[in-house]
Amino acid sequence: EVNDKGLLVKIEPFPKEINTKTHESSATFSSDGSIMYFNRTNDKKVDVGNEKFASVKIFKAEFKDGKWENIVALPFTSDSYSTEHPVLSKDGKKLYFSSDMPGTIGSFDIYFVDVNEDGTFGAPQNMGNTINTIHREQFPFISDDGKLLYFASDGHQGMGGLDIFMSKSYDGVFAKPLNLGETINSNMDDFGYIVDEKKNKGYLSSSRKGSDNLYSFTRTENEARYVVEGEVKDKN
Fold first, then answer.
1. Prediction pTM value
2. Which secondary structure element, helix H or strand E, spans residue 216, and what is its range?
3. What digits encode the pLDDT tens for the residues 158-198?
4. Which DSSP category does 227 fall into?
5. Which residues in 44-67 are b (16+ Cβ under 10 Å) and which e?
6. Could you tell me the CA-to-CA distances from 187 to 106, 162, 208 in Å, in that order?
Protein backbone atom coordinates (compact mmCIF):
# COMPACT_ATOMS: atom_id res chain seq x y z
CA GLU A 1 0.00 0.00 0.00
CA VAL A 2 1.01 3.64 -0.47
CA ASN A 3 0.36 5.80 2.59
CA ASP A 4 -0.54 9.50 2.63
CA LYS A 5 3.18 10.43 2.67
CA GLY A 6 3.83 8.44 -0.48
CA LEU A 7 5.74 5.71 1.34
CA LEU A 8 5.31 2.02 0.57
CA VAL A 9 3.92 0.16 3.59
CA LYS A 10 2.51 -3.30 4.41
CA ILE A 11 4.79 -4.91 1.83
CA GLU A 12 3.97 -8.58 1.31
CA PRO A 13 5.41 -11.15 -1.09
CA PHE A 14 3.24 -12.87 -3.67
CA PRO A 15 2.49 -16.57 -2.95
CA LYS A 16 4.76 -19.47 -3.89
CA GLU A 17 2.84 -19.99 -7.13
CA ILE A 18 4.38 -16.71 -8.33
CA ASN A 19 7.61 -16.49 -6.31
CA THR A 20 10.04 -19.37 -6.81
CA LYS A 21 13.69 -20.00 -5.96
CA THR A 22 14.76 -17.95 -9.01
CA HIS A 23 14.22 -14.25 -9.68
CA GLU A 24 10.76 -12.77 -10.28
CA SER A 25 10.27 -9.10 -11.15
CA SER A 26 8.55 -6.43 -13.24
CA ALA A 27 4.90 -7.26 -12.58
CA THR A 28 2.25 -5.51 -14.68
CA PHE A 29 -1.51 -5.93 -14.32
CA SER A 30 -4.68 -5.69 -16.38
CA SER A 31 -7.02 -2.83 -15.40
CA ASP A 32 -9.30 -5.18 -13.47
CA GLY A 33 -6.39 -6.92 -11.71
CA SER A 34 -7.33 -10.36 -13.03
CA ILE A 35 -4.22 -10.86 -15.19
CA MET A 36 -0.57 -10.35 -14.30
CA TYR A 37 2.48 -10.53 -16.53
CA PHE A 38 5.87 -10.80 -14.85
CA ASN A 39 9.48 -11.88 -15.34
CA ARG A 40 10.97 -15.13 -14.13
CA THR A 41 14.55 -16.28 -14.64
CA ASN A 42 15.11 -19.84 -15.84
CA ASP A 43 16.13 -22.24 -13.09
CA LYS A 44 18.76 -23.85 -15.31
CA LYS A 45 21.36 -22.57 -17.74
CA VAL A 46 21.69 -23.62 -21.37
CA ASP A 47 24.58 -23.36 -23.81
CA VAL A 48 24.33 -20.26 -26.01
CA GLY A 49 27.48 -19.92 -28.10
CA ASN A 50 30.39 -20.49 -25.77
CA GLU A 51 28.59 -19.44 -22.60
CA LYS A 52 26.13 -20.85 -20.10
CA PHE A 53 23.05 -18.64 -20.08
CA ALA A 54 19.85 -18.48 -17.99
CA SER A 55 17.24 -16.54 -19.95
CA VAL A 56 14.54 -14.32 -18.47
CA LYS A 57 10.98 -15.08 -19.61
CA ILE A 58 7.65 -13.28 -19.41
CA PHE A 59 4.95 -15.28 -17.65
CA LYS A 60 1.20 -14.77 -17.46
CA ALA A 61 -0.91 -15.53 -14.39
CA GLU A 62 -4.67 -15.33 -13.81
CA PHE A 63 -6.32 -14.35 -10.51
CA LYS A 64 -9.32 -16.60 -9.88
CA ASP A 65 -11.24 -17.30 -6.68
CA GLY A 66 -8.68 -15.46 -4.58
CA LYS A 67 -5.54 -17.12 -5.91
CA TRP A 68 -3.10 -16.96 -8.81
CA GLU A 69 -3.25 -19.87 -11.26
CA ASN A 70 -2.72 -20.85 -14.92
CA ILE A 71 0.86 -19.56 -14.75
CA VAL A 72 2.52 -20.07 -18.13
CA ALA A 73 5.42 -18.62 -20.12
CA LEU A 74 4.34 -16.59 -23.12
CA PRO A 75 4.74 -18.33 -26.48
CA PHE A 76 7.40 -15.96 -27.83
CA THR A 77 9.79 -16.50 -24.91
CA SER A 78 12.84 -18.72 -25.29
CA ASP A 79 15.68 -20.49 -23.49
CA SER A 80 18.19 -18.86 -25.86
CA TYR A 81 17.23 -15.18 -25.42
CA SER A 82 15.50 -13.00 -22.81
CA THR A 83 12.17 -11.18 -22.79
CA GLU A 84 12.07 -8.66 -19.95
CA HIS A 85 10.25 -5.77 -18.27
CA PRO A 86 6.67 -6.30 -19.51
CA VAL A 87 4.17 -3.46 -19.27
CA LEU A 88 0.55 -3.78 -20.36
CA SER A 89 -1.36 -0.93 -22.00
CA LYS A 90 -4.40 0.27 -20.07
CA ASP A 91 -6.81 -1.23 -22.61
CA GLY A 92 -4.97 -4.55 -22.37
CA LYS A 93 -4.41 -4.75 -26.12
CA LYS A 94 -0.64 -4.25 -26.25
CA LEU A 95 2.19 -5.64 -24.17
CA TYR A 96 5.50 -3.73 -24.34
CA PHE A 97 8.77 -5.38 -23.30
CA SER A 98 12.53 -5.43 -23.92
CA SER A 99 14.41 -8.30 -25.51
CA ASP A 100 17.67 -9.43 -27.09
CA MET A 101 15.84 -11.84 -29.42
CA PRO A 102 17.18 -12.36 -32.96
CA GLY A 103 16.61 -9.27 -35.09
CA THR A 104 17.38 -6.70 -32.41
CA ILE A 105 19.22 -3.53 -33.43
CA GLY A 106 21.31 -3.44 -30.24
CA SER A 107 21.98 -5.58 -27.20
CA PHE A 108 18.40 -4.99 -25.96
CA ASP A 109 15.51 -3.39 -27.88
CA ILE A 110 11.97 -2.30 -27.02
CA TYR A 111 9.26 -4.46 -28.59
CA PHE A 112 5.49 -4.69 -28.40
CA VAL A 113 3.08 -7.51 -29.09
CA ASP A 114 -0.67 -7.40 -29.75
CA VAL A 115 -2.82 -9.17 -27.15
CA ASN A 116 -5.84 -10.63 -28.92
CA GLU A 117 -9.33 -10.86 -27.42
CA ASP A 118 -9.10 -14.64 -27.24
CA GLY A 119 -5.92 -14.39 -25.14
CA THR A 120 -3.51 -15.27 -27.93
CA PHE A 121 -0.63 -13.05 -29.02
CA GLY A 122 0.52 -11.58 -32.31
CA ALA A 123 4.11 -11.61 -33.47
CA PRO A 124 6.52 -9.40 -31.46
CA GLN A 125 7.28 -6.15 -33.29
CA ASN A 126 10.50 -4.19 -32.90
CA MET A 127 9.80 -0.48 -32.31
CA GLY A 128 12.44 0.52 -34.85
CA ASN A 129 15.59 2.63 -34.89
CA THR A 130 13.89 5.85 -33.76
CA ILE A 131 13.47 4.22 -30.35
CA ASN A 132 16.16 1.52 -30.43
CA THR A 133 19.92 1.98 -30.82
CA ILE A 134 22.95 -0.32 -31.09
CA HIS A 135 23.12 -0.27 -27.27
CA ARG A 136 20.52 -1.02 -24.56
CA GLU A 137 16.88 0.05 -24.50
CA GLN A 138 14.98 -1.46 -21.58
CA PHE A 139 12.26 -0.88 -18.94
CA PRO A 140 9.43 0.48 -21.12
CA PHE A 141 6.39 2.21 -19.61
CA ILE A 142 3.37 3.40 -21.57
CA SER A 143 0.93 6.17 -20.55
CA ASP A 144 -2.76 5.36 -20.10
CA ASP A 145 -3.67 6.92 -23.45
CA GLY A 146 -0.87 5.02 -25.22
CA LYS A 147 0.71 8.20 -26.59
CA LEU A 148 3.75 8.52 -24.32
CA LEU A 149 6.43 5.85 -24.16
CA TYR A 150 9.03 6.08 -21.40
CA PHE A 151 12.10 3.82 -21.39
CA ALA A 152 15.70 3.55 -20.21
CA SER A 153 18.62 3.70 -22.65
CA ASP A 154 22.39 4.04 -22.72
CA GLY A 155 22.37 4.49 -26.49
CA HIS A 156 20.68 7.86 -26.88
CA GLN A 157 22.45 11.06 -25.80
CA GLY A 158 22.47 10.97 -22.02
CA MET A 159 24.23 11.87 -18.79
CA GLY A 160 25.89 8.53 -18.13
CA GLY A 161 24.74 4.94 -17.72
CA LEU A 162 21.09 4.27 -18.38
CA ASP A 163 18.97 7.43 -18.67
CA ILE A 164 15.20 7.72 -18.88
CA PHE A 165 13.72 9.00 -22.13
CA MET A 166 10.25 9.83 -23.39
CA SER A 167 8.84 9.49 -26.90
CA LYS A 168 5.48 10.89 -28.01
CA SER A 169 3.26 9.19 -30.56
CA TYR A 170 1.97 11.25 -33.48
CA ASP A 171 -0.67 9.41 -35.54
CA GLY A 172 0.66 6.11 -34.24
CA VAL A 173 4.33 6.87 -34.97
CA PHE A 174 6.68 7.50 -32.04
CA ALA A 175 8.95 10.54 -32.42
CA LYS A 176 12.61 11.03 -31.52
CA PRO A 177 13.03 10.40 -27.77
CA LEU A 178 13.70 13.24 -25.33
CA ASN A 179 15.97 12.90 -22.31
CA LEU A 180 13.96 13.67 -19.15
CA GLY A 181 16.78 15.86 -17.84
CA GLU A 182 18.95 16.19 -14.76
CA THR A 183 16.11 16.34 -12.22
CA ILE A 184 15.39 12.68 -13.08
CA ASN A 185 18.61 11.38 -14.63
CA SER A 186 22.09 11.16 -13.10
CA ASN A 187 25.54 10.06 -14.27
CA MET A 188 24.74 6.53 -13.06
CA ASP A 189 21.98 4.11 -14.11
CA ASP A 190 18.42 5.48 -13.99
CA PHE A 191 15.64 3.12 -15.04
CA GLY A 192 12.27 1.58 -14.17
CA TYR A 193 10.35 4.88 -14.52
CA ILE A 194 6.59 4.79 -13.92
CA VAL A 195 4.24 7.74 -13.46
CA ASP A 196 0.58 8.36 -12.66
CA GLU A 197 -0.25 10.98 -15.31
CA LYS A 198 -3.28 12.26 -13.38
CA LYS A 199 -1.65 12.54 -9.95
CA ASN A 200 1.78 13.56 -11.35
CA LYS A 201 3.49 11.15 -8.98
CA GLY A 202 5.76 8.26 -9.83
CA TYR A 203 8.76 6.06 -9.09
CA LEU A 204 12.10 5.21 -10.63
CA SER A 205 15.14 3.12 -9.79
CA SER A 206 18.68 4.52 -9.75
CA SER A 207 22.22 3.60 -8.76
CA ARG A 208 23.15 7.27 -8.22
CA LYS A 209 24.21 6.54 -4.63
CA GLY A 210 26.23 3.43 -5.42
CA SER A 211 23.59 0.69 -5.35
CA ASP A 212 20.18 0.33 -6.96
CA ASN A 213 17.48 2.06 -4.92
CA LEU A 214 13.83 2.92 -5.47
CA TYR A 215 12.93 6.63 -5.55
CA SER A 216 9.61 8.46 -5.63
CA PHE A 217 9.02 11.83 -7.29
CA THR A 218 6.36 14.48 -7.77
CA ARG A 219 6.11 16.00 -11.22
CA THR A 220 5.51 19.77 -11.44
CA GLU A 221 5.17 22.24 -14.27
CA ASN A 222 8.52 23.60 -15.44
CA GLU A 223 8.21 27.38 -15.16
CA ALA A 224 11.68 28.11 -16.57
CA ARG A 225 11.14 28.28 -20.33
CA TYR A 226 13.32 30.02 -22.85
CA VAL A 227 13.44 30.49 -26.59
CA VAL A 228 17.02 30.35 -27.88
CA GLU A 229 18.01 31.38 -31.38
CA GLY A 230 21.47 31.08 -32.84
CA GLU A 231 23.94 28.97 -34.72
CA VAL A 232 25.84 26.04 -33.23
CA LYS A 233 29.32 25.23 -34.55
CA ASP A 234 32.10 22.94 -33.48
CA LYS A 235 35.76 24.00 -33.31
CA ASN A 236 36.27 23.12 -36.96
1. 0.92
2. strand 213-218
3. 999 999 999 999 999 999 999 999 999 999 999 999 999 99
4. -
5. eeeeeeeeeeebbbbbbbebeeee
6. 21, 8, 7
